[in-house]
Amino acid sequence: MLATSISRKLAVTAALGLLLVPGCHTAEQALPYAEAVRIPLDAWPAVQVGTRSVATGAGTVEYRYPILGAGHPLTAEIHTSMAERQTEFLEALPESGTPELFQDTTVLAASPRVVGIRVTETTRAGVNETFGARTLWYDAQHDTVLPWTSLFRDEAAIERAHLAIADVLEDGYDMPTEQLPGLVGEVAQRAARQEAGGSGPGEAGAGGVPPSPDPVGEETAPLDLSDPEQALRAAELWAGSPLADLAFSTAGGLAVRMEPGEVPGAGRVGEVLLPVEPEDAEDLLSELGYHAREAALSGEPDFPLGGELSVEGDSLDCSRLKCVALTFDDGPGEDTERLLDMLAGYDARATFYVLGSLVEEFPEVVERTHAEGHEMGNHSWKHDDLAAKSEAQVVDDITRTNDAIRAVTGSDPLTVRPPYGSLNGTVRRAVDQPLILWDVDTMDWQSRDTAKVAEHALTHTTAGSVVLFHDIHPSTVDAVPEVLEGLHRRGYHFVTVGDLFGLESLAPGDVFTDARAG
Ligand code: NI
After folding, report:
1. Ligand 1 center–CA 426 separation, angstroms
2. Which segments of 425-491 are extended strands (E)?
């Protein structure tokens, strides 16, 4: 997804985007330059911001994303794609050095009709720095997230936008057509050839010409960019276009980012923002594009945010990611808070299958666990074998424990784990919540051996695993740092049971051991 990648000596120069490069003659007349409408997340006080930040001896990863409402598709897309990128980064960590990955978001437009978000990523390793950016557009009318291509009327409009950029570079920056960079150069050179050699057959003004190389010929029908699938297809065809990181300009046109190295005459070191003038942009935009421009120019983000948000239900799409649910049974206990500190160091979420009787004994621990975004699960009142009980007795036990948890957290636990994993038809009928077992059993209660517990968890966990621990044993809690470090380095995301399975896929009385694919 990286649009571009450059090396810079000093990060600080990037912040001073207007520095003139030494040796360049000072510009006599003002070069065409756009001012982009980009609103920092901090300038949108109403929006809740999700953050993840983990620094280990091997590297640092950090990201921020806006939470537009519980389970909002744009939040889910941003959060999940950032998590995917983090996994790629961690899987490719070098043996030495401590590289860093920072992902962030900026608001480009926000109205009840459309929200535009710019997603940026910066990696640093020693003196090398790479930067990439792309934009995502939430179309409220269709409740879906679209790529940049959906802002344009059709592919011909996308082509004309490239030609407008080419004009700016040729006329404003004195660049010869054959020196224009990337797709802008390809489109401009093709247009110049067509002008010189007569118009191509049946081409004038018709559907856009896909950038070379020509994709297998047959598909000639113009893409309908108001269709999400076709807009995505167009984004693939135009991959590498500077329009992937466009914003609206304060003048009402477009601001298209290019790398300083691609436009040396601009004399800028941070980024070069080329203008597509309002009158040129006018005919290029789709209906969504017009709404987005209107929202951008209105100044203030104005999007109805979804009411009360909890830290839970954090909108990661685990079907696209390496997720793991760490679960801790039989507590809370004396070591639970020590465990919470460890989890916090990795911004990890876990699930705690607590006993109702102990919730009454350690309410402040349960309160803290819940407040830090972990999920509470029901593990019965005092660890009786539920399969040995009558239906009425099971209902009584589970209800009493639900009540004790709700009294502290304000909500019922999402799932139940029967003690010993022991269940039968009576238990399944009696329990009104999904039943969650595990696929990785660390056998920590038996071995009480820190090294063995960590080794077992690290060896057997795969994407979608539910790992069973007991936080009442100090030897188990001692193993957790190694488990977190090892799985984090391999690109895992630590999520709650509810997030791992996706709430909607769980039905009362159903039994699950894991969410592994296939
Ligand atoms: Ni247990």
Report:
1. 19
2. 435-436, 440-441, 465-470
List pLDDT tens digits, range 188-223: 999 999 988 765 444 444 444 555 444 444 556 889
CATH class for the domain made up of 323-512: alpha beta
- 494 CA to centre of ligand 1 in angstroms: 21
d(CA 500, CA 26): 57
What token pair was written down for 257?
A: 């980012």
pTM of the model: 0.86
Reduced to 3 states (helix: H, G, I; strand: E, B; else coil), residue 259 is: coil
For ligand 1, a single-atom ion, which residues have Cβ within 5 Å? Answer: 329-330, 419
CA of 374 to the centre of ligand 1 (A): 18
The residue ranges of the chain whose pLDDT is under 70 are: 1-29, 198-220, 306-314, 518
DSSP code, position 222: P
Give domain limits for the chain: 323-512
Q: How far apart are CA 87 and CA 74, in angstroms?
A: 20
CA–CA distance, 272 with 369 (Å, rounded to integer): 47
pLDDT for 505 equals 77
